[in-house]
Write a structure and sequence with these properties.
The structure is a single chain. 35% of the residues lie in helices and 20% in strands. It contains 16 helices and 19 strands.
Amino acid sequence: MPLLPADIIAQLTSLLGANAVIGEGAQMGTYLNEPRRRFHTPAAAIALPGSVAQVQAIARWANESGVGLIPQGGNTGLVGAQVPLRGDEVIVSLARLDAIRSIDIAAGTMTAEAGVILENAHRAAEAQGAMFPLWLASQGSARVGGVLSSNAGGVNVLAYGNARELTIGVEAVLADGRLYQGLNSLKKDNTGYDLKDLLVGAEGTLGIITAATLKIFPRPEDYETTLVNIAGPEAALELFQLLRERLGGRLNAFEIIPDIGLELQLRHGMLDRDPTAGSSPWYALIEITRMAGTAPGALQAAVETGFERELIANAVFAESLADRTRMWSFREQMSEVQSKEGASIKHDVSVPIAAIPQLIAEGSAAVERLVPGIRPVPFGHMGDGNIHFNFSQPVGADGKTFMAEWDEKVHEAIYEVVLRLGGSVSAEHGIGQLKVALLRQVKDPVALEMMGSIKRALDPRGILNPGKMLG
């Protein structure tokens, strides 16, 4: 028989101690209230293990008792992977596992526990004269375990790769409580399947990541950052290709933003002043790193060529840290500002880089035909093909009515364009519970069968994040 909530709380308390279990609904808000407020199912309890051994004990107990476990980092996920689906699960917060175990400058690695806040990982690396390059808008609250479990991307994917590419090894608790000890700093290890790649991006469905060995890099001496005015995505594509030719691997960010993003942020007082060189239909935020011993000015020289080829109408360069911060705030506040304009329908999609102009043009036209007055707000990572293709409600519309009537239809319109262009319906946010049905529709059946076989092999009782990703 399934355990009653009171029994779950009592048994967890005996395993972990009273201070490591939250059983009162009123105290669970921090763990249940995910950023988009789309999911509202309660949990049976919150477990707060303080050691890897305690995570193992929870997994053994859950496997024997048939209780579902939901691994959770900073609760910043956008597809509901980190919050309950059924209501009888236990959230396992990794927040207390927050130690930086080691930093090896010679090897270029940092071993961090799953509960380390991403911003703290940045600071730890910087204190040793190094850099951990995974940067997200939520880095002040996102934690390493969650970032890896969702294979997060961020703004530096162009130069450094996403979370999977930045991970050398992981330590993880399996469904039966065994510990997979896969931490190492080897750049070459050809001894069979790369098991870390199963666990990174699995959204906690195959194991609970407790620590990881991450790549770190020499800290740049400085950054060169510019915000340029461009006519549209077609010009952005040409400019991106030009900069890749001129700057190579030094180009670590190329983000595109439509003018509506600036208009909304200035209207709502989210920027202390306009960071651009003047009004433009679109903007590109471009940044390169400058390492010690290299001369400044490479980005400016490349941008001048962009002017000569009439790809850029105007540009402003960051002349101080405040300028750079303001430019990046403009980019990072794009999602937040939409909430101030009412309801919005959002998509995290990717297509081949050359197809981005077609995606934006055809997707916007398709949705505008469906919903007159809707406001397209596409923005994101031009350099890796990942566009956050969002739509704000028409001015004056009722948000609930807008979502009820158009949410599904707008998704269908955008996904039709994305799939036709050879893209993905989830670029960096994952599947969670939001896109389970969609994954079944678009994923290759053989791939789904293989994923199911792996899940059954590693978690035969289905206790790890039940119902997520594969349903």
